[in-house]
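Objective 1.3, modelling of assemblies. Example input:
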Amino acid sequence: MTDRSVPLLSISSLSVRFRLPEGILTACEDVSFSVERGESLGIVGESGSGKSVTVLSIMDLVSAPSVRREGNLTFRGQPCASLAAFRGRDVSMVFQNPLNSLNPSIRIGRQLGEVLEEHLGMPGPSARDRVVGMMERLAIPDPERMLERYPFEFSGGMRQRVMIAMAMLCEPALLVADEPTTALDVISQAQILHLFRELQRVSNTALIFITHDLGVVSQIAQRIMVMYAGRVMEIAPVADIFANPLHPYTVGLLRSIPTLGAERRGCPLAAIRGTVPSPLSPPPGCRFHPRCDAVMDVCRTQPPPPRDFGGRVVWCWKYRGEGA
Amino acid sequence: MDILEVRNVGKTFPVRKNLFGRPTLELHAVRSVSFSVPRGSVFSIVGESGSGKSTVANLVAGVHRPTSGEILLSGEPLKESDRRRACVQMVFQDPESSLDPRKTIRFQIEEGLLIRGMGNARERSGRVSAMLDLVGLGRDLLPKYPHELSGGQKQRVAIARSLILEPQLLLLDEPTSALDVSVQAQILNLLMEIRGTRTLTYLLITHDLKIVSCFSDRVAVMYLGRIVESGTVSDIVDSPLHPYTRALLSAVPDPGRRMTSDPVRGEIPSPLDPPGGCAFRTRCPDASDVCETPPPRVLAGGREVSCHLHSGRT
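Predicted structure (tokens):
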């Protein structure tokens, strides 16, 4: 269990499909990645990229009868079907909208204390001390009084802090955050990102941070996984993604974001042409080929295999013959 | 001449009323806001939620009437009867809710002409086709319904719909916030391109300073119903004066730099009970006792800032 050489979480060849009246919807296909202890991995993609489904299915939170899941998963080196058994204590989650995750009719103090009682069997008074301590770490002002309040009395930023406090109470080995700052204003977002960084610095919690915003992920992740239309395009350390992106999709995505800099002010943005394909009928071969400027014949028919460049992996035919 | 002039405009909404319908609690959404927009330019209003930026857009569009002050369009005061005028049109954030799910794309683009009884069927159809070309959509979409279109296509339809009456002023309220990054760039480029082909003024309402920086000529920054600073885009983005503008800019997550600390402490106060004096003083790193008095409006070289720190500048 304490073997340091084994990644905390390892996923290989994960596919999730939904059977719908219109046909089979492939939400994600052949997704493989791993997360080390204490590491932060950012998953970036546009809507329909499969970034949320990938993680939700690992947590066993998509379990309709129409869902088919394939692939292998290991947690701390142990093969398991999903992380359901670890949820709450060893693995916890923070969602985009805290108002949907909190019970509106129960005081914050009880909702937080419940977590410790349920998972650690901690009695009321000591649970309360731990809750107050965690709220202080998350810069929630006047925690003793806040415990007596209801979720609606908090602002969006404060609610998200409460959610993060709840998720961190049991000091999980893995925290999964799905677009945790998307509903927030830019200043609250910066404050929450700062908190995530501080929490990571002092605890040994690994973080999977899902977002559509490349700017946000640059502030929080050590490694970035770029997804598009249900497939992984590229996984690389954060500095490499921004300084030297390999996949044409990553390159296009980076070029299309507006920047604060004065150099390109008033110039058109370098948009990626076309639109994201329907998940009901994804294009054959590389999913990005209909929008790619570097498209070759092979891209249209065969999905690209992973190319390993030592520490970074790219799924693109352009790098055939390179790497390992 | 300026196409739009907003003079000391204020707007209050009743939040709670007593038995006799008199307001007992009021929300001052906009307080004494003044700015003017030169014809043919892009003017941006940027701020967080609760800053009053969308209320300003709604006042200009005639959706709300100002409680105080006046709004001039091409020098003419805006009247109640102007609510249906064609020269100001709006594009909203979410095309999902601004388009009618039960009407075809053709009808939605054509609707403005139908309401005004303009042209015969052939002329209208020609105008619709011209609009489709302008926004880069194919004619095959005309008989379709909004649910058959992607988010980017829907926003293009919303733009075509707003432009068919040949407005002079287009209000863009967060036009790309609901879109994916790659589509956002396409829509922003389209808006820039359209402006090149006709005399059109944009009033852009957004929370995203990166879009403001790429896209506008002049910028006003709002906080709790007031404009705290305004100027050209390079004034505001490259050398901000107001501590709030600086905080906003430093909070923008930029791949080029790693944020090291909190940009600003605390949270935006309730607009129902804003601090007296300078509204930002409760969070301002440079606040002093003098900030409890209303800040002066300091004008310097075409820019304007409401802050005691800069009261010495002229």
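The mean pLDDT of chain B is 89.
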